[in-house]
Structure formats: structure tokens, C-alpha cells
Amino acid sequence: MDSNLPFGLEKIEHIGIAVSELEPAIATYTTLFGAPPYKQETVASQGVHTVFFKMGESKIELLAATDAQSPIAKFIAKRGPGIHHIAYAVKDIEACMSHFKEKGFTLLSSAPVPGADAKKIVFLHPKDTHGTLVELCEDV
Ligand code: CMX
How far is CA 95 from CA 16, 37, 85, 108, 123, in A? Predict the structure, then answer.
């Protein structure tokens, strides 16, 4: 279904999975996908080490905390490892932010911030999206 551009979510860009330890998780997902990750990147501003796997158009991002203050460390302490967020590609992130703010969603930053894999990103608070953290991302 085509979204009502420029405000809609276009497609799932990736699914983020919070892991306690990166190396065993990389080994597990390398076995599952039959291929190693295509990218590893630390985003210090978000407190995350990220590792990306690709199958066709689908991407999985493993996320490990860089330190105890990381949102990933807090997430794992509270809920355990597992699916952390769903990231959706959008065409115009600023337009989406204005639109969703007007619709009553809580944006976790007032402007897009740098994300992994050459994206600018923003999160919607999970309390507004029925318990799932939503990331909007646009290619830089
Ligand atoms: N998915 C679903 N619910 C989540 C969640 C997540 N990823 N993270 C937190 N929550 C829930 C908590 O369980 C809690 O629920 P209850 O009130 O029912 O207990 C509630 O949200 C508040 O959680 P909290 O532990 O008190 O944490 P904070 O309010 O301090 O922060 C959040 C929560 C989502 C605002 C924060 O984690 C955040 O800003 N996240 C966005 C940034 C981020 O996650 N960056 C890492 C990824 C970076 C990347 O992909 O590049």
C-alpha cells in the first residue's frame, strides 16, 4: 500500500534487536543468515554499538550498549534482550516529525539526530505506539 506521502511510513528499513553481548549474537545471526554482517558501527551519541545484517531488502540491526547509561543497557536491565525497535524509512523526516507531532505523538528529539548506516533518525515514544519503539529514518 502506498502511504500518503510525504507523511507516511514507506517501508520497514530495519528491525533493531538489543543484545547483551555482541560477539555471540554476531555468531548466531551469521549462522542464521549464512553470511556475516555487512557493517559494524558505533554511534557514540546514541550509546550503541551496531551490527547490520542484510537478506534481500530486509535488514536486522543488532544493538549493544556502549556503557551503563545507554538506552540499550536500560532496556535490557528492564525487559531483557530482544526486539528493541522497528525502523521505518520516510522520504522527508522533518515533514513527518511536524505531522506526527501535530497528531499528538511524542518525539524523542526536537530535530533528527545522526543514526547508524548513514541515516538521520528520530524516535517516537513507545507509549504512543502501543508498546513498540518506532524509529523514523531518512538517508543522509
Ligand atoms: N520498546 C518498548 N518499550 C520501551 C522501550 C523500547 N525500546 N524502551 C523503554 N520502553 C518502555 C519501558 O519499559 C517503560 O515502560 P513502563 O513505563 O510501562 O515501565 C517506558 O518505556 C519508559 O522506560 P524507561 O526505562 O523509564 O526509560 P526512559 O523513559 O528513560 O526511556 C525511551 C525510554 C524509549 C524514551 C528511551 O529508551 C529512548 O530515548 N530511546 C530512543 C533512543 C534509543 O533507543 N537509542 C538506541 C538505538 C539507536 C539506533 O538504533 O541508532
Answer: 24, 32, 21, 16, 14
Q: How far is the CA of 28 from the centre of ligand 1 (A)?
A: 25
DSSP state for residue 128 in the 8-state scheme: G
Residue 74, ligand 1, Cβ within 6 A: yes
Domains of the chain: 6-139 (3.10.180.10)
Instruction: Give me the count of residues in the chain.
Output: 140
Low-confidence ranges of the chain (pLDDT < 50): none
pLDDT in tens, 83-121: 999 999 999 999 999 999 999 999 999 999 999 999 999
Strand-strand pairing, 82-89 and 119-124: unpaired
Give the position of cell 554511534: 43
Distance (Å) from CA 123 to ligand 1 centroid? 10
CB 6 within 8 A of CB 100: no
Question: Which residue do the cell numbers 554482517 mark?
Answer: 37
Contact 122, 135 (CB under 8 A): yes
Report CA(75)–ligand 1 centroid distance (Å).
6
Q: Look up the pTM and report it.
A: 0.94
